[in-house]
Amino acid sequence: MIKKCLIPAAGYGTRFLPATKAIPKEMLPIIDKPLIQYGVEEALEAGINIIAIVTGRGKRAIEDHFDKSYELEHQIKGTSKEHYLTEIREVIDRCTFTYTRQIEMKGLGHAILTGEVLIGNEPFAVLLADDLCIGEEEGILKQMTELYKKYRCPIVAIEEVDKSLTHKYGIVEAKELEENVFVVSNMVEKPKPEDAPSNLAIIGRYILTPDIFEIIRNTEPGLGGEIQLTDALLKQAKNGMVIAYRFKGKRFDCGTPDGYVEATNYFYSKLKN
Ligand code: UTP
Questions:
Q1: Which one of 54, 220, 241, 257 is most buried, counting C-beta atoms within 10 A?
Q2: Rounded to whole angstroms, how far apart are CA atoms 205 and 199?
Q3: Distance between CA atoms of 255 and 203, rounded to whole angstroms?
């Protein structure tokens, strides 16, 4: 039912400078695989094979990564190293990649609006590649697309965070509908702990409906002068229904050094066992 996944990847990645000066943050590897490839594989697991990526200046490496390198194929074919290409070859074979560029980085909401041309008039998934997620049994997007079949409304993935960290996230106020599924009544972007309505933080996985584009178009810049997705989602929550889903699994915030190292250790220990 959900056929497209939008990956906004135009941000500057300032928290990882100077590494991200000439390399997109989304191309930083966890061991041997770039963050964005983990994301695309998660989308594939959810049955999504049209990958729409919002890029920007200096992000060309992403397009090259999801393209065939004839020189490399020629060099490696028939050698003992060929298996290193197995996974990426499969991703390239199974997906269609489309791209558009965000010219000015005016925030996540604006990046999603920039992706409208690639999505059109249908529900779609959004994946932020710097949130690397490991599902318990199924991937997070798979869990969310299943939930979409039942509720047919926008869904945000949430995680309980320490109250002292609410200023880093969009925080929801919500009422539990069934186990792990909440109806959102309010959302606040990066509140101070004392102002936060809960400790349920929105992470980088969403299922959105196409009416979000018109709402974003009519949303004024919010916190930090950026067009915030949270503000647009709040309008949807007030006028209809938005669900917050406490996913089953684990998330690494690879946009920060702590999360990045944690993810690296996790995958390294898996490699060794
Ligand atoms: P972040 O704020 O986490 O990423 O945005 P950033 O801006 O790249 O990182 P810092 O804060 O400077 O270190 C969340 C996601 O939204 C994308 C980013 O690429 C990231 O995947 N984004 C953000 C855009 O595509 N465009 C924007 O204008 C802002």
A1: 54
A2: 17
A3: 12
Token digits of residue 268: 């390294």
C-alpha 238 to ligand 1 mean position (Å)? 26
Please check whether residue 141 is in contact with residue 255, taking contact to mean a CB–CB distance below 8 angstroms.
Answer: no
In angstroms, the CA 22 to CA 148 distance is 38
Measured CA to CA, the distance from residue 107 to residue 121 in angstroms comes to 22
Domains of the chain as residue ranges with CATH: 4-272 (3.90.550.10)
pLDDT of residue 224: 80
What are the E-state strand segments in 130-248?
A: 131-135, 155-160, 170-178, 181-189, 200-208, 243-246
- Atom index in ligand 1 nearest the CA of residue 16 equals 13
User: Which residue is it, tokens 């993810």?
Assistant: 263
Ligand 1 centre to CA of 243 (Å) is 23
Query: For a pocket test of ligand 1, which of 114, 128, 251, 254 has the largest count of ligand atoms closer than 8 A to its C-beta?
Result: 128
User: Among 46-50, 104-108, 269-273, which is the least confidently predicted range?
Assistant: 269-273
- Which residues have any ligand 1 atom within 6 Å of their CB? 8-15, 25, 54, 102, 105-108, 110-111, 128-130, 255
Whole-angstrom distance, CA of residue 222 vs CA of residue 81: 50
Closest CA to ligand 1's atom 10: 13
pLDDT the model gives residue 216: 96
| Tens of pLDDT, residues 222-254 | 878 888 899 999 999 999 999 999 999 999 999
Give distance in angstroms: CA of 13 to centre of ligand 1. 6
pTM reported for the whole predicted model: 0.96
